[in-house]
Structures are given as structure tokens and as C-alpha cells.
Backbone:
């Protein structure tokens, strides 16, 4: 089941104030960017974040899952816990780099 834009907009509202927030549709699912950095992956109306050390203290007791076949395990983000969610996004934004654009083939 593909994610719907209403859920994406809800997630973006929950993290408002975390920086410049945007989203991009990918294969029926979405990636939410903060300051041009890929922070939250939305698959099947579930918010996932990478399992990185900087968010372990916030999420080590939370559920984990695989957003799609072949993906690494991610933390499932409880998007309703507002202040904690903003702290997680802030911690991830500090360590995730801006993606380098791929060179086009000639």
C-alpha cells in the first residue's frame, strides 16, 4: 500500500521548526528532507528513521522494521510524540550529510 500525502503533510507539520522541510515522492512512497538532508522515510504511512547512534538513546526501546524489501532495519518513529520527534530529527540532521548529486551519463 502506498503512502498518502495527508500522512506526509501531518509528519511535516509535526516537525515544523526543525529547519527547511520538504518532501519528494519516490516509487509511491516519500522521503522527508530537513535542510536538504534525507531524514524521514515514509512507507505504508509509517515513519522510519535510520538506526544511527545519535538517536539510539531516544529510540532503542521503540519498534523497528524494514520499510521495503531489501532495506536495512530502521527505527519506527512515533510521530505523535512531538518534542521527542523534534529532538530525533534535530540529532539526525546534524549527522546526515546532504546527498551528492549523481553525475549524468552521457
Residues:
Amino acid at each position: 500500500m502506498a503512502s498518502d500525502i495527508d500522512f506526509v503533510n501531518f509528519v511535516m507539520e509535526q516537525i515544523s521548526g526543525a529547519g527547511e522541510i520538504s518532501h519528494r515522492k519516490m516509487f509511491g512512497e516519500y522521503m522527508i528532507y530537513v535542510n536538504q538532508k534525507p531524514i524521514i522515510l515514509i512507507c505504508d504511512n509509517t515513519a522510519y528513521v535510520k538506526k544511527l547512534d545519535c538517536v539510539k538513546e531516544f529510540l532503542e526501546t521503540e519498534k523497528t522494521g524494514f520499510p521495503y524489501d531489501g532495506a536495512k532495519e530502521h527505527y519506527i518513529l512515533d510521530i505523535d510524540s512531538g518534542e521527542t520527534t523534534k529532538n530525533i530529527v534535530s540529532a539526525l540532521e546534524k549527522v546526515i550529510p546532504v546527498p551528492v548529486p549523481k553525475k549524468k551519463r552521457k
